[in-house]
Amino acid sequence: MPVKIGFLGAAGEVTGSCYLLQTDKSRILVDCGMFQGRYADDRNDDEFDFSPANIDAVVLTHAHIDHSGRLPLLVKRGFKGEIWATDPTIELVAVLLRDTAKLMGEESEWKNRKNARKGIPPVKPAYGERDVEETLKRLRYIRYDERTAVADGASVRFRDAGHIVGSAITELWLANDGGQVKIVFSGDLGPRDAVLERQYTLIEEADYAVIESTYGDRNHKSLEATRAEFREALAGAIEARGKILIPTFAVDRAQRVLYEIKRLQLDRTFPRMPKIFFDSPMGEKATRIYEKYSSLLSREVQDMLRAGMNPFAPEGLSYTSGVDSSRAINDIDEAIVMAGSGMCSGGRIVHHLKHNLWNKNCHVFFVGYQAHGTLGRRLVEGEKSLRIAGEDIAVGAAFHTLGGFSAHGDRDDLLEWASRFGHGASFFVTHGEAKSAEALASGIRQMGYGAAAPARGAYYDLSEKQAITRPELAPPAPRALAFGSRDAVFALLADIASEAASIRENLDSRADFADISPLLESSRLILQTVKNIKTKK
Ligand SMILES: [Zn+2]
Ligand SMILES: [Zn+2]
What we know:
By secondary structure, this protein is α/β, with parallel strands linked by helices.
């Protein structure tokens, strides 16, 4: 009986992590995450590619919504098994899923008010707060480094992934006709020089490894260079005496920023900081969980705690809970404001951006990954006029992108993790945009392993060490996307966006702008025609 793996999300893109493992004894999901970015709403509401009632267990690598966000939908649609995770993950996921359900509820109420005026029938959110509570009841805790049976013929061991508190590399053993297959999921991997977290665990033995590739084609600046850059940019921004906006993911990025600010405050030569508003009730809850599980954090953090300081509480920090106090920040000229969402696709950061982006004295710091189609990505890519919450904004603010603050390892970190496996291992590269996943797969092949970047919806048979075990052979052809299907269109859009980004990166002052312009002009016209088709009805 074959052991099969299906790649049902985070294939050719960063979000929507979901893998299905199937043997004759059991069916297990690793992660059940949300898609994020443009058009994500429709996709999150899609039918699953399997029947939820037939899934025996879920293994959750970490709490981030792109790994956990569709769990309540899974439960709502009939999943009856257990969801296995580390202790901090269980606490974090409760905070994140409750918040997600609340946001979705508010959003559909808002849509329905608008739709009612146009006579359009009401929409329902993918799931509600009750589905979240049902989901939380199914969570079961596994300690790091202990092997535990999670379903018939399947056992799991979590190892620290150094990405956020509680994040786990997942070793999974599946029984198969007298033998067994071992498959390792990297989950999201932290950088080798992790700041808040411990360094990721090295795994040496596996038949297969599924590795993330968020930054599979890029290296970050070093930690030292990143800190120097942050110090200089922040000092400049403080001097401009305007708002300093930091869109932050509530989990980990926010705690990291608080910690880096705290470090700068200990340096007496650094300019005096304005008030710091952490405008995120969810961020506050996440920070408490970081404090609670500080024994799982880095030595650096524990040293600061031992010295009697709270690493996540810089001077002048206040948490903003109510919406009114969030709005009141608009009346203050000078302040550091941290708010979510991290990609500016919703949440309180949107109103801060709307009120401040026009201002030349405003500085915005991006400290995390910005997915295609999000407001954050458009700002990073330099769009100068935008419509935000119903208002046209001309962008005057200055932007700083601190890639080195990422909770993800860069290309070298990922290759280093991969290089420790014995040569019997083969790799599936996921959780990265197509260009990035392909670049990492090719780097791994150069080290002598088999590696493929599967397409969404592809299944592979793991019971025979087939095709990808030998790098000179092409990976088995994945199920092709049906021409004209929605998935095929999404893949095309992702390609177009990544082509545009790569054209921009490769332009230098000697480029033949006169030749390039008319071609780009016609591409834009074609895209506009497509847009008009979409909005016809
Ligand atoms: Zn993550
Ligand atoms: Zn992720």
